[in-house]
Write a structure and sequence with these properties.
heterodimer; A: alpha/beta; two-stranded antiparallel ribbon; B: 410 residues; 3-stranded parallel beta sheet; 14 helices; globular
Amino acid sequence: MLKYLIIQLDSTSTSFCHYAVNRREPCLMPLDTLRKAIRWSMIENVNVQFLYPEYPLPAEYADAIETIDHVKIMQATAADAGKADIVVFDGIASVDADSLSEDMSIVVRTGKKAFFAEYAMLNAILPKVSRLNVVITDIASFADDDFTTYEAALTELAVAVKNEYVGNHPVQFNLLTDRIMLKEMNNCGAGSESLTLAPNGRFYVCPAFYFDDESDSVGDIDNGPSLKNPQLYKLGYAPICRVCDAFHCHRCVWLNRRTTLEVNTPSHEQCATAHIERNASRRLLEAIREVGEFLPGMEIPEIDYIDPFENVRIDR
Amino acid sequence: MNEEKLKIKEDAQQWEGGVAKNITFIVTKDCQLACKYCYLVGKNEEERMSWEVAKQAIDYIFDHENDFPERSVVFDFIGGEPFLEIDLIERICDYIKTELFRRQHHWFDSYRFSFSTNGINYDTQKVQRFIEKNASHLSIGITIDGTQRKHDLNRIWKGDGPERGSYNDVVRNIPLWLSQFPGGGTKVTISSADIPYIRESVLHLYSLGIHEVNINVVFEDVWQEGDDRRFEEQLMLLADDIIDGDYYKDYSCSFFSERIGKPLDPVKENNNWCGAGRMLSIDAAGNFYPCTRFAAYSLREKRPIIIGNVRDGINKNRLRPFLTLDRTTQSPQECVDCEVASGCAWCQGENYDAAETPTVYQRSTAICLMHKARVRANNYYWNRLFRKLEKDGSREEFEQNKRNVKPEIC
């Protein structure tokens, strides 16, 4: 069931996820399209998330946006960043910890190399925010050595997270605490729980699909969404994911399509990184419980694999 | 009671069925024929495999023995028409044999070379020399579609000018082929226009001495209104002929099987029909495919699915969708709930080509009515046959002697 509509206000609106914004020339969504999108969202009863460009929006756009309950997602460098509900940083080093406040939710997009070089800086950020989402944009490039390095990095970061919890600051950190809080899959949901409306007035599975190929739309605001094979975006139609308990995994359908050519099938790299996070979360849960009672009833079992594909493949 | 040992023949088991790796060399995309029902839409004379590409492919496969743990291997050679490239094939097979021995590979003496040919070049000196040299590790099937009028309806020579059937050019080689492969089977393909000739064609193939007729309807959406009824009528007539003529004792026709037409358990009987992804196909450019049907020359609408190449190896991520495919996930609900689901086949490549999005997870249902017609005729066949056997007192013997046949996975 559709729950969210992501409205990309401009072709250069910020990315908050794995995909890169590959448009340089701004192209603002027509005001008429924006108004239709807001009306459509009210009728369909979906929550709206606006992706903002760097430049300030005209006053009539700001007025229209305020006619509906919504979430604002902006780059930290955007003109109106102070009004954002979620602030996006490109690179860990670009985050000025002193400028953060405890009620902030931030997204940090980083490449693998930069993450390995800079992850220790997150220790200074964790005490300053209510939620930190780290998105490693080039997960598909992980090799065996990288998995080892990643596991070591998360083990170190878990110490900082534990200290926050012991210090009564239960910060949410997607890589280490989301799995602890979940009893079932809670993934991106693009194509099943969310769609994106691009500045051209067309629906896409998510903004990444718009940037990949503008003709790959799934309907338009005048005629409504028309996603073909919608079942393939649902958990029950994903043979690997439906038996998996890395509940926090992005399960990014765009990465799936890029790497395996199927939206319902994750790559080894996506599965393995999610399981390294899952296992690090398990150890973090145990570490916090050494200090005192914490989330009784929430258990993460020990497992001996990092890719559930090995459990469901039909040729072995 | 009939003292003679009753032999009931059904489809022959594939060699090492289910445990052998199938590796297919698309040695050429050329063929002497231009069969009207051929799914290969991009045949051409240019894309011929070079020795360098073939060798690179073999070296890659043998260098990565751990990635190919199957007990046995079947090397398939297809085209187009594979025997157009007999010189290359002979060199490939020689190299495979030498390398298996030199490397002490676990496939040494557990390999087979397999061909499906149009039969036109079968009696040439080069092909015959190859057969003699590799006889103990060889399977060859010649495709002949039945009577001359049925065969020539579709299997015509390519080129401009008046249509010319290939029946006479093939049938002359059948005796030689059967003398070398006495159990040889043929593949018969049924499209809409062929339906009236099914009965006569199967009987004709039996009369040529071919005991195993593997016959199927095309998976493409070519069917006309009323085809299912016409199909059912033909199969009923064929059933009568097979039973009344006692052909069931020594001959098989894959249309009739005890295993088809039953509901399937969504959990216990959830296997994929197709072996795409467990196979490996290599084309002239050195690209790897999960099955030949995913190469560009096989696809009408979609881009090819390339899973690697001889230089960079296999991209295992691209195999994951194929190796996790099951029946229910790709099937519409009507197929999951179908009361006569067993034996209803699909081709993963055709599913992909016909799908609304670029996915292998949308099963085409173009043959639904044809399968249901087959099931009705199949029920008739077995009810009639069993009644006859019971009256003859030979039912028990039949049950004891029938072969344990598994459905053939493509």
